[in-house]
Design a protein that fits this description.
2 domains; elongated; about 20% strand; 3-stranded antiparallel β-sheet; two-stranded antiparallel ribbon; alpha+beta; DNA polymerase, domain 1
Length: about 150
């Protein structure tokens, strides 16, 4: 029985010798290297659904996390992608929070391994150093001295 071929840019799905299915989709070229996102599942349908989710994220402009993505690289990519959407002062405030607080504390962690404990430890350390979380009138959260 012939199987339907997947279309251009739909990714590939195949079965490994251990019975698991693998799906891979191209994310394009990043820094001169081809990037692919690989997903695994126990059925072809499970992998196909994961690939559909990745394609939908790509179409919406959301970053797709690859195995080596650190919090720092994700935040830098996020800042560059949201820059046109915000007023200059808002972008300046976001950039300051990212570079002064988030990247030094969490930047070396792999994005897919970042947990609530890491974030809570950062918040506890900021609180112990005398910074408090403050809500501005626009409800953006920032760290301010007490």
């Amino acid at each position: 029985m012939a199987t339907k071929r997947r279309g251009h840019n739909e990714g590939s799905i195949y079965q490994r010798s251990d019975g698991r299915f693998v799906g891979a989709v191209s994310l394009g070229m990043v820094d001169g290297k081809r990037r692919r996102k690989v997903v695994y599942g126990s059925t072809r349908e499970e992998v196909r659904q994961q690939l559909v989710k990745i394609h939908n994220d790509l179409r919406r402009g959301l970053p797709v996390q690859t195995a080596g993505t650190t919090v720092a690289s994700f935040l830098e990519e996020w800042l560059s992608s949201v820059a046109p959407k915000f007023a200059p002062k808002t972008l300046k405030n976001y950039t300051m929070v990212v570079h002064l607080h988030l990247i030094p504390a969490l930047g070396t962690h792999k994005l897919e391994k970042l947990t609530q404990r890491h974030v809570q430890a950062m918040l506890d350390a900021k609180s112990a150093s005398g910074l408090t979380l403050a809500r501005s009138s626009t409800s953006a959260t920032s760290c301010e001295p007490p």
